[in-house]
Amino acid sequence: MSDQPEKPLHELLTHTMVDIYVGTENTNYIIHEKLLCYHSPFFTRTFYDRSSKNSSSKSFGIPDFEDQPFELFVGWLYSRALRYPEEEKEIGPLLDLYLLAEKFEIARLCEDVTETVRAFYHNNETYPGLRRVQYIYANTEEDNPMREMMVSSVARYLTLSDSIPAHWAKALKNNG
Predict the structure, then answer these.
(1) What is the pLDDT of residue 90?
(2) Which of 6, 64, 69, 165 is 20 to 30 A from 22 in CA distance terms?
(3) Structural contact between residues 154 and 133, judged by C-beta atoms closer than 8 angstroms
(4) Are 106 and 40 in contact (CB under 8 A)?
(5) What span, in angstroms and rounded, lies between the C-alpha atoms of 144 and 165?
(6) Would you place residue 1 in the very low, low, confident or very high pLDDT band (cuts 50, 70, 90)?
(7) pLDDT in tens, 109-122
């Protein structure tokens, strides 16, 4: 898909819709099937692979994710843009969106989220907190781009600062 030009949005907005149920409350999101499957190999297999138990159904449940990151996903799906975070507390939902993008196999969204988070930390002359780094490490594989960006940000900040915060020093001594 990356070697091909992007399909215009109007070509992906067909009449066929799918129901995606999110979170423990089963919030229902109705999404254009072709748009969803165009961007996600995961959903292409889910809805089009004959061996998939969901291929004849036009609904899918994602109980292990919350509404907020999924809402960010739907916004990105239709606009291909992410809202820049104004405060550090808005990074958490972006990290959850990143994990969602990995699950759905959407490399472009992973790249967009990583760049948005990197830009936030760079523009605010700060770095990811220990818990943010631990969260990404606990939920991603080795050689993950978000891991690499976070480690680079932390290393840059700690190298340029006068001292290493105590909680970071303790974590580094204990291997994270």
Answers:
(1) 95
(2) 6
(3) yes
(4) yes
(5) 25
(6) very low
(7) 999 999 999 999 99
Q: Are 49 and 71 in contact (CB under 8 A)?
A: no
The Cα angle at residue 160 between residues 154 and 165, in degrees rounded to 5: 60
Element (H, E) at 20: strand 17-22
Rounded to 10 degrees, what is the CA torsion of 60, 61, 62, 63? 180
* Neighbour-count burial for 100-128, b at 16+ CB within 10 Å, e otherwise: bbbebebeebbebbbebbbebbeeeeebb
| DSSP-based three-state secondary structure for 28 | strand
Find the DSSP H helices in the chain. Answer: 9-12, 33-39, 41-48, 67-79, 91-103, 107-123, 130-139, 145-160, 166-173
pLDDT in tens, 118-153: 999 999 988 888 889 889 989 999 899 999 999 888
Residues 6+ apart with CB under 8 A from 157: 126, 127
Least Cα distance to 119 among 153, 155, 92 occurs for 153
Cα-Cα-Cα-Cα torsion 17, 23, 25, 29, nearest 10 degrees, comes to: -20
116 compared with 172, residue with greater pLDDT: 116
pTM score, whole prediction: 0.84
Tokens of residue 137, six digits: 């490490």
